[in-house]
Amino acid sequence: MRQITIVVAAALLAAVVACAGAIAFMRLGPGESRDAGRVAETRTSAPSGQEREPGQEQAPEPRPTVTVTEPRTVVPDEPGRSAADADFLAMIAADGITAPDGWAIEAGRATCGQDYASAREYLTDGGLYDHHVQTFLDDWMITHGGC
């Protein structure tokens, strides 16, 4: 019985809130003097020293440009780096592993072919989280086709 009372009370409260929202919306409807067009018209101002004539449109302000930068960049002609290394760096970054590029490649080469315990020790001593070790090793194997 108590659950039914709570459900009925919640339904009534929701109806009252919805009704109050509808009343507020209708009160500020287009027939009133506070409609959006008039408010927007009073808020825009002409640049200093210029008068805006009725009906003259003001040029929109330029929107900011969003620039996306890649977290890692690989110089194509950097000695000792291959396309597989670039793919590896991209994969570990996508997996949420952050490490300096040089260290990551060095660690990949050093741990490739080692047993898991030795590779785990090397990688966690280098700062990798324990839960990233297997992902790091898998990404190396995928991008480099083995050791």
Shape: flat
What composes the largest sheet? none
If you average the pLDDT, what whole number results?
Answer: 74
Radius of gyration: 31 Å
Low-confidence stretches: 32-44, 71-75
Number of E-type strands: 0
State the secondary-structure class.
Answer: mainly alpha
Distance between the termini: 69 Å
Give the fraction of residues assigned to helices: 40-55%
Elements, N to C (H/E): HHHHHH
Question: In what range is the share of β-strand residues?
Answer: under 5%
Number of helices: 6
Sum up the structure in keywords:
147 residues, mainly alpha, 54% helix
Topology at a glance:
Layout: H1 2-27, H2 36-43, H3 83-94, H4 101-111, H5 116-125, H6 133-144
Helix pairs in contact: 3-6
Describe what is shown at a glance.
With 147 residues, the chain is mainly alpha-helical. It has helices at 2-27, 36-43, 83-94, 101-111, 116-125, 133-144.
Write structural notes for this entry.
The chain contains six helices and no strands. The protein is flat, with a radius of gyration of 31 Å. Helix 3 (83-94) packs antiparallel against helix 6. It has 147 residues and is an all-alpha fold. It has helices at residues 2-27, 36-43, 83-94, 101-111, 116-125, 133-144. The model is unreliable at 32-44 and 71-75 (pLDDT under 50). Among the domains are: 2-41; 83-144. It is 54% helix and 0% strand.
